[in-house]
Design goal:
single chain; 367 residues; alpha/beta; eight-stranded parallel barrel; 9 strands; binds ligand G3I
């Protein structure tokens, strides 16, 4: 049973017991973010979930968890009529018992290489539009209904915009439906019906980087289209797999363009959620301490911009410890060293990035 801390403190005060100064209570990431009305959290994958010390660290630091892979279409539905909910259920059950909210990631990820194999090779027959609607609709409704009331926020649609072109990505589903925008709209509508209380987000990795202008423009077009058609959407999920580096002038230019984008999004009445924050240090040379400093400074500069926006409701990192980060498998460092892009190192020791985030929350806009 989880004991409510408020009762423990109230009881201790009534008995005039010395209340231990919970040093970490005032300074956990969770508390620092909560003071600004923001839910801080992290993603957790299968390896991390199997480690009790890691789970304990997350319970201490986080108010929100996102299953890193367990709620994706290929994981939940590896065959046309095969459903495997065990891993996702376990994470949701644990989070709920520990008093943490859950982000559902993700109901519909229409990227060809992220579809279940059976979908990627599906024969959509003579009525492909209806078949695609039926396939996507069934998945969205089944998952959203199962986790309704347990998942507070869903990434309903993930990465449907091609960063190179700013247009919709191609896939078997785009071909079958003839217009993937229909399926995107359908996913949001069905998610709202199936989980009426959940926050519904579009999630993507457009960023402030110089190469991201087309991606940002494409995402804006998508959001405007959804708004115009009165499709239920509450938030933009900003993945934020950022890469440390660049001088002050470059950062200032990126920041201007990024703010213009965020202004447009919030101007549509949408909330913002940072959904997958980590800082890739592949371009940072030097000993670990030097890299950690650069990562922390970059994390601070990036977070300061987001934290100035009052509609920001959540801030989730893609892993809390370098031990379980996906970053090592993504464009490895030239020197073969492990990357150091999470708030805790691989021994679960806090790094400067953690302090930078606590400080950024402390300095963020009051709401
Ligand atoms: O679990 C299997 C294992 O049994 C098997 O032996 C191994 C062989 O390849 O694969 C393992 O599954 C891998 C899984 O990660 C767990 O490690 C998948 O192949 C691999 O594709 C999967 O990668 C995940 C990726 O999304 C694709 O789903 C990463 O862990 C995950 O961090 C990454 O997360 C994405 C977000 O969902 C969306 N935004 C970008 C972010 C980073 O790419």
């Amino acid at each position: 049973m989880k004991v409510d801390r408020r009762f423990v403190m109230a009881g201790a005060a009534a008995l005039a017991l010395p209340v231990p100064l919970r040093a970490e209570a005032a300074t956990t990431l969770r508390a620092a973010a909560a003071a600004r009305g923001i839910g801080f959290g992290t993603a957790i994958g299968a390896r991390g979930f199997a480690d009790p010390a890691y789970r304990a660290l997350i319970e201490r630091e986080c108010a929100v968890v996102t299953p890193e892979n367990a709620m994706k279409w290929p994981a939940l539905c590896p065959g046309p009529d095969r459903w495997v909910f065990d891993d996702a259920d376990r994470i949701v059950g644990w989070a709920t018992r520990a008093g943490m909210a859950v982000r559902g990631h993700t109901l519909f990820w229409p990227r060809q290489d992220r579809l279940p194999g059976w979908v990627a090779n599906y024969d959509f027959g003579t009525k492909p539009i209806a078949a695609a609607d039926q396939m996507v609709g069934r998945h969205v409704v089944t998952v959203a209904k199962r986790y309704a009331g347990k998942v507070g926020s869903f990434d309903v649609v993930n990465e449907v915009i091609d960063p190179e072109t700013g247009s919709y990505r191609d896939s078997v589903l785009a071909k079958a439906s003839g217009n993937i925008a229909r399926l995107v709209a359908l996913a949001f509508q069905l998610a709202r019906e199936a989980a009426p209380k959940a926050e519904l987000a579009y999630n993507d990795y457009m960023d402030w980087g110089d190469g991201s202008a087309r991606h940002r423009a494409g995402v804006l077009r998508l959001l405007e289209g959804l708004r115009k058609a009165d499709i239920p959407i509450d938030a933009l999920g900003i993945q934020a797999h950022v890469t440390a580096g660049g001088d002050a002038a470059a950062i200032a230019r990126r920041e201007r363009e990024w703010r213009a984008f965020l202004d447009e999004v919030t101007g549509m009445g949408l909330k913002l959620v940072v959904t997958e924050f980590d800082v890739d240090d592949r371009d940072i040379a030097g000993p670990p301490g030097q890299r950690d400093r650069a990562v922390a400074d970059y994390a601070r500069a990036w977070s300061d911009v987001l934290l100035a926006y009052r509609p920001l409701t959540g801030f989730v990192t893609w892993g809390l410890s370098d031990r379980f980060s996906w970053l090592d498998g993504f464009r490895p460092r030239g020197d073969g060293q492990h990357k150091r892009g999470c708030p805790y190192d691989d021994q679960f020791r806090p790094k400067p990035m953690r302090d930078a985030l606590v400080a950024a929350f402390g300095a963020g806009a009051a709401r």
